[in-house]
Amino acid sequence: MKAYQPTDLGRPIVRFFQEYLPTLRGMSCHTIRSYRDGMVLFLRFAAIDCGRPVESLMIADITADRVGRFLASLESERHNSITTRNARLAALHTFARFLVAENPEHMVALQQVLGIPFKRGACEAPIEYLETKEIEALLAGINRETAAGRRDYAMFSLMFNTGARVQEIVSLRVCDVRLEPPHQVRFQGKGNKIRLCPIWPRTAQLIKELIKHQDAGGQDPADQHVFLNGRGATMTRFGLRYLLQKHIVASAETAPTLAGKRIHPHSLRHTTAIHLLKAGVDFATISQWLGHASLNTTMRYARADIDLKRQALAQVFPEVLAPPKGGAFVFHGEDITGWLRRL
Q1: Rounded to an integer, what distance in angstroms lies between the CA atom of residue 235 and that of residue 224?
Q2: Domains in the chain, start-ordered, CATH in brackets?
Q3: Predicted TM-score (pTM) above 0.70
Q4: pLDDT tens, 306-341?
């Protein structure tokens, strides 16, 4: 096996993720994981583009042209959205600034990387969420006779109940769940912010039954993660996504509208927000419920739901939209002027 000599890129990457992001920048574990995923994708692309293994890449290999080709490949080959493309670029921008401070001799090339602009989208992508019948079909299609089915049912019920992010769900520990009244869960969200979410008694019972049949594996039961995979390890974001897709495909037989939607784990979060809005919950409460940093993030749900738009239209023009009393109105001569005066 060929041994590779350490390069000037390897050690900075380690310091970037182990020291700079968590300590000096104080970034949350969720952001660090996102940056990590972006870095892995770029290193793999750069290795192919350079024709060398990842282990032999140098700081000099991080050029604006190469980063530009990488971003283009995200959209053309991986079919990533503009939002995802910009998130990957943000990670590379942060890493480039870190490298400039550590290796000023590469400043000119790295400043060119920093000069790559974020891409503006032509329009905001529509929010995909599940209607009530689709939620019922998804949950009803889960086989709760098996241990895996009971776990999936409890997991997706909790996601619908709380609107939690995927990472918040897979990171949830037994000590974060209050199974006695008032039932609630504690999430650690973006920026390490802690928030409490109420849960239905039925959801608490599902989680209680799930925890009761789990093996703590010798560790403190309170520190055990609530949702585990088939090997008894912590559920991952990718594992949750796979399970959701599996159940979506199965439930599309009873809810055909699911086949035409691109549902992903974050869609369940959108679903909770939309249904809270439909129930008349105010924006400030929904924002706190979901752990949004800004109320503007919550406001986009008001633009997403066509039913809310119909309700708003009916409130603005109720008489015009209402069916005529006593049958269809027919204009005869001067009757039209009387009708117009009543507008």
Answers
A1: 12
A2: 10-114 (1.10.150), 132-308 (1.10.443.10)
A3: no
A4: 555 455 445 544 444 444 444 444 444 445 545 445
